[in-house]
Amino acid sequence: MSMARTVSDTRLIFGRYLRQTLRSKVAVVFGLTQPLLYLLLFGPLLTRLGGVRGFGSGDAWQVFVPGVLVQLALFGAAFVGFGLIGDLRSGVVERLRVTPVSRTALLLGRVLRDTVVLVAQAVVLLGAAFALGLRAPAAGVAVGLLFVVGLAVSVASLSYVLAMRTRSEDAFAPLLSAVTLPLMLLSGILLPMGLAPGWLDAVSRCTPFRYVVDAARAAFRGDYATAAVGEGALVTVVLLVVSVALGARRFRAENA
Amino acid sequence: MIEARGLARSFTTRHGTVEAVRGVDLSVAAGEIVGFLGPNGAGKTTTVRMLTTLLAPTAGTATVAGCDLRADPAGVRRGIGHVAQGGGTDPSVPVGEELDLQARLHGVPDRRARIAELCELLELTVPASRPSAALSGGQRRRLDIALGLVHRPRLLFLDEPTTGLDPQSRGNLWEHVRSMRDRDGTTVFLTTHYLDEADALCDRLLIIDRGGIVARGTPAELKRRVAGDVVTLELSGAGEPGPAGGEGAASSPASAASPASAAERARSALARHPAVREATVTGRTVRLTVQDGERELMGLVRSLDAAGVVLASVSLARPTLDDVFLAVTGRSLRDAAA
Q1: Is A12 within 8 Å of B93 when comparing Cβ atoms?
Q2: Read out DSSP for B197-226?
Q3: ipTM score of the complex?
């Protein structure tokens, strides 16, 4: 399968699923409400915690907003597998698989759509955060967004792999919450892990999202040349490569 | 168009290994409509999924539309269309978008003209903006078929094409399948568990049961191979008590010797008739299996007349594919579905 074929097929599949998303605007808006609520109803509390030990330097919004962005990516992307289960059930997946379409494009087209949706939501969220008082360098916000996008692509790919394996909402949903909730709590999305007792901090360091959150926070502060950004970049790239490779393998499998 | 040898597929489940298809050999020539007939769970869909590259066979080889199934699955996909049992459309996606994407993925030149042509041929006269959820069952099925045909495949797989359709839509769909073959020379391989469908539509049939092909031939050949025609005689036994539930084979010597009742006399008269293969008596009804029943019917009636048996009615029924299935597997197709 040639590269050009994969690219053009990815574009076609992306178009199909983007149009599907645009038809169900409710879902996109709904996905945004939760992080917006965190921003509006939880964020103001944090601004009172300014000088607390472990909170790190910088404004509370600079700490909090990257966390909410990662949360948006994590939850938004984790649930994309439901759409695939719907397509498995309606027969769309098999119908597409009997065409000469690139198998990889069937994954990438979907993931690209998920990424575009996430970036749109993130822009809205950042606008709201600026209105509430976030101040961060534009370059830092851009770098932070890159981390979030890398995370979303990884999580979406893994979500599709899980959906392909479970093939039913009943099995997929509990598995999803069993995985995402601890990962979210351990990543220090809501409060920085600098506040955590030693053991919790140690456990947290074993989960990938911790590094992504720390890196995004450093970027929002404008501290680009730090260990946090380096580690975050490394973890994100490894996660990205592994997840997309797993996804591509799953979509290429004869009996998918 | 299809050459398969020893095609097999087993699945590993919690309860061990299930052999869904065990060594199927089949050939389908270009331009044929071949039916794959069998009860639910016989292995029809599994075989079709293997032949359409959706499922890797655990054993065997196949050439489909000129390409080797294992070595060149992409080539197979270019040459075939596949309409799955449950269709393959997203209910929320507009009809026009589904067709357009399918045509683009197949690289159909001048796809707008092709889609317009297909919609006209299949009488799919719905606005392109309508989501497939809003189509009738028959329209949705024709959309599925249009999706399978958009790239003018030489070979079309139809998995249970008319399940869930009303009788009128079924007849209409049969017409479309026939004209597809007559007009474009499209080879059609279809699975069905409906006997009338197999009978009405297919040039040739393969009967599959429990993962293996148990019979093959044209519908007429298969029916000839079985029992023969069924002749049912209703005896006019005014005042005469019928032998309560008496049943037995005509060939048994005891029946020839037993006296009296009309049914017994009828049976002994018929047992000597060379065309009669089997006779059973139930009350005043005699059910005969007769080779070439239409021609022999007069002779049967005459020999009954000679034996002094008065008939109330005579009926002749041609064997159905259900009889074929019964003869081949020992089970009725209706009961076998499980």
Answers
A1: no
A2: HHHHH-SEEEEEETTEEEEEE-HHHHHHHS
A3: 0.89
Choose from B49, B55, B93, B105 for mutation: most chain A CBs within 10 A. Answer: B105
Cβ contacts of A101 on chain B, cutoff 8 Å: 105
Chain B residues with CB-CB distance to A100 below 8 A: 74, 77-78, 105-107
Domains of chain B: 2-224 (3.40.50.300), 228-318 (3.30.70.100)
- pLDDT tens for A91-115 read 999 999 999 999 999 999 999 999 9
pLDDT over 90 at B243, yes or no: no
| One-letter amino acid for residue A206 of the chain | C
**Of A209, A216, A200, A92, which Cα lies nearest the Cα of A145?**
A216
- Confirm or reject contact between A22 and chain B (CB < 8 A): no
Angstrom distance (rounded) from CA B207 to CA B324? 9
| Interface contacts (A, B; CB < 8 Å) | 72
SS3 for B56-93 is CCCEEEEEECCEECCCCHHHHHHHEEEECCCCCCCCCC
Average pLDDT, chain B: 85
* pLDDT at residue B251 tops 70: no
Cα separation, A135 vs B216, whole angstroms: 77
Could you give the number of structural domains in chain A?
Answer: 1
Q: List the alpha helices (DSSP H) in chain B.
A: 44-51, 73-79, 95-105, 111-121, 137-149, 167-184, 195-201, 219-225, 253-257, 262-271, 293-306, 321-329, 333-336
Sign of CA dihedral A39, A40, A41, A43: positive
Query: Residue A202 is part of which domain span?
Result: 3-252
The tokens describing B210, both together, are 């429990």
> Inter-chain contact A24–B105, Cβ cutoff 8 Å?
no
Chain B interface, mutation test: which of A95, A97, A251, most B Cβ atoms within 10 Å?
A: A95
Residue of B nearest to A87 (CA): B90
Q: Could you tell me if A218 lies within 8 Å of chain B, comparing CB atoms?
A: no
Q: Of A78, A223, A62, A239, which Cα lies nearest the Cα of A147?
A: A239
Chain B residues with beta carbon closer than 8 angstroms to that of A98: 52-54, 77, 80-82
**CB count in 10 Å sphere of residue B65:** 20
